[in-house]
């Protein structure tokens, strides 16, 4: 008789696709406070008063290769502080972070080659020199071989049309031109993890679109992992499937964009185009009037009543076009977290 020894369970496979692992991450700042004026300064000099600001309070999440997440929250929610800890610029007060297997705070060379941090409100390009000089500096810093440098420049130029602006002094570039160069400079070393903090801030709609398309193409080509914060929901809805919402330093939602919209306000928006001008009063019986500008109107109605209200509108008015949409994501987020103005500053 033969006996078969029970098979040992196979060893757990490491999750090779796990790129960012954050556990119970915390950051607090000790802020010195003083009352205004000379007396306040004197008092603070004699007895220093300190207050602790809990900017990030126990945040946990995982990100896999190629994933793009929208990292949203109202002003002061803790987004920038989290991104700075992920990129090693700030040391956490507690918890764990791993990015590409590295501990960011150690800022090892291999880690710095893996990541990039773009802050729309801060510039990295040398102000008095042409952008091309900053690109050359980055080439030297990251030890990018010449052929790779030229190939990357050609590829970025195809999408961003950098040619005409590379030799102009950075201080003379428009905001949009500068942002294109900032992004290209930040991605020259082909990082696998992108921390993008408001990359489209202040740009006009066209330029926002260009920057978005550039990020999308880069993400697809490199299978890069992207964390994106933006006050422009169009950036988020165009690029991210998954949304992380932070408020008061803690994660309030981590899931699909679609789930968030469904969880939303319980209402839908009916958009109307009419053949005759109409007033808000005349539309009021059909729902909450958001807008009534002559031939265009928008109504907010409960989700459950959409069909009945749409049928009533089509029956009673001369409607050229009628569409039903989810409310803007800003409204959904604003309502969920008690910031009625959404995440707009
Ligand atoms: N160096 C600092 N010293 C003291 N408090 C700080 C410091 N940096 C940030 N904070 C505070 O920490 C909290 C989180 O700030 P953080 O910049 O991370 O928010 P945010 O979500 O990026 O906001 P915004 O959308 O306005 O940029 C805020 O209350 C902010 O005032």
Automatic annotation (TrEMBL):
Pfam family, one: ABC_tran
Domain ABC transporter: 20-273
Gene3D superfamilies named among the record's database cross-references: P-loop containing nucleotide triphosphate hydrolases
Entry's Gene Ontology molecular function annotations: ATP binding; ATP hydrolysis activity
Keywords assigned: ATP-binding, Nucleotide-binding, Transport
Superkingdom of origin organism: Bacteria
PANTHER family xref list: ABC TRANSPORTER ATP-BINDING PROTEIN (PTHR42711), ABC TRANSPORTER RELATED (PTHR42711:SF4)
Name by which UniProt lists this protein: ABC transporter related protein
Species whose genome carries this gene: Deinococcus maricopensis (strain DSM 21211 / LMG 22137 / NRRL B-23946 / LB-34)
